[in-house]
Design goal:
alpha/beta, Rossmann fold, two-stranded antiparallel sheet, about 35% helix, globular, disordered N terminus, binds adenosine-5'-diphosphate, binds magnesium ion
């Protein structure tokens, strides 16, 4: 451990990124199911909350947990934070990390998580306008985004407070994704087993591969590891079977196929709405949806926790 990460002798929180440049494949849904599942299972969370970060300017995660407000100009900003009522800016978003890079402040701020209806789930919301600025940062400044994000995520205080951090990302290549891949410890790629998506998955693995290699060469940081490809919205059709088989039989990519999958079930979409009760599929005891969701959550969690040693202890 000390050879791999000489500057991280202290525990580091696992940072799990859900990513795929394709939209509508389940990045937001599966990251929510993951967070809710971990929050629901004491043997996984050991009493610590999980933190979800919304890195998508479309802000589906932020809306899901009702942490947004719409400005007069129609853009989405986080709602006021009860702990920031005395401040000039009364809200916090993930962009607080990059206020220096986009020239808003001299120094960045540490994002302040929002509590949610679930005591074991905290969320750091998106900020549409600031994210647009972050995405306009010149190429040679992009490394600063990753650097600020890593500094915050590797803080031992964060590992003390949270059992894990989950990053929900946007469906396009951008500086936000680059920052996330430069600071996550584990990645998974949800995909729908259909022709275009399978091709996309292969280029996604190559893209993540560049970061994995870069991070391995950075002797002073924890590595990034690809946990795998998660088939989502699976239907029992020939098309879906065929496309899962293409990956299963692939000489390079087969090892990344996760041995769990999520079917296309209305419960996943229904729980996108916070007003539904229950608002999480793992609470639907003894149903197929709860069983497969828990299987996914436990598989991913156990896989991440294998690295507890290099993370300096994990949860
Ligand atoms: N396994 C599933 N079964 C049914 N609907 C799903 C499933 N996964 C995602 N959805 C629905 O598909 C849509 C897109 O999913 P989402 O998670 O928002 O994708 P992304 O974040 O990759 O753009 C949402 O309306 C969501 O409710
Ligand atoms: Mg999304």
């Amino acid at each position: 451990m000390s050879v791999l990460i000489p500057f991280y002798p202290h525990p580091v929180v696992p940072v799990i990124i859900s990513f795929n440049y394709k939209g509508g494949v389940g990045k937001t849904t599966t990251s929510r199911v993951l967070a809710q599942g971990v929050a629901d299972l004491p043997e996984l969370n050991k009493g610590k909350p999980i933190l979800i970060v919304d890195l998508d300017p479309q802000a589906n995660t932020t809306r899901r947990w009702q942490l947004h407000r719409i400005n007069e100009d129609g853009s989405l900003v986080p709602k006021d934070h009860p702990a920031l009522m005395e401040d000039d800016v009364k809200h916090s978003s993930i962009c607080d990390l990059w206020l220096d890079v986009i020239g808003v402040r001299e120094k960045p701020l540490v994002p302040v998580p929002y509590e949610t209806s679930n005591p074991l789930i905290h969320v750091i919301p998106a900020h549409e306008e600031l994210m647009a600025e972050v995405m306009r940062v010149p190429r040679d400044e992009v490394v600063k985004l990753g650097r600020n994000m890593r500094k915050w995520l590797r803080d031992p205080a964060l590992a003390e407070q949270y059992c894990a951090v989950v990053l929900d990302t946007q469906p396009s290549k951008s500086s936000l994704i680059d920052a996330a891949l430069a600071s996550a410890t584990h990645a998974y790629i949800p995909f729908v087993p259909e022709p275009q998506s399978v091709d996309g998955v292969m280029s996604m693995i190559m893209y993540a591969g560049r970061y994995i290699k870069e991070r391995r060469e950075q002797q002073n940081d924890v590595p990034l590891r690809l946990v795998g490809l998660l088939p989502n919205m699976v239907q029992r059709t020939r098309l879906h079977n065929q496309h899962i088989k293409i990956i299963r039989d692939h000489e390079v990519f087969s090892k990344y196929l996760m041995p769990v999958k999520l079917h296309k079930l209305i419960g996943y979409a229904e729980t996108d709405d916070w007003r539904n009760s229950p608002d999480q599929v793992t609470a639907l005891d003894n149903t197929n949806i709860a069983l497969e969701a828990k299987k996914f959550v436990k598989y991913l969690w156990n896989d991440v926790m294998q690295d507890a040693e290099i993370l300096g202890g994990g949860a």
